Amino acid sequence: MEIHPSAVILLLLLAASFTAYGQPDDIKPRYQKFLSQHVGLRVSEHDCNREIRKRDITASENGCKEVNTFIKAKKDIIRVVCGKGGTPQGKNLFKSNKPFPVVTCKLKSGERRPKCQYRGKKSTRYIVLGCDRGWPVHYEEGII
Question: What pTM does this model have?
Answer without folding.
Answer: 0.81
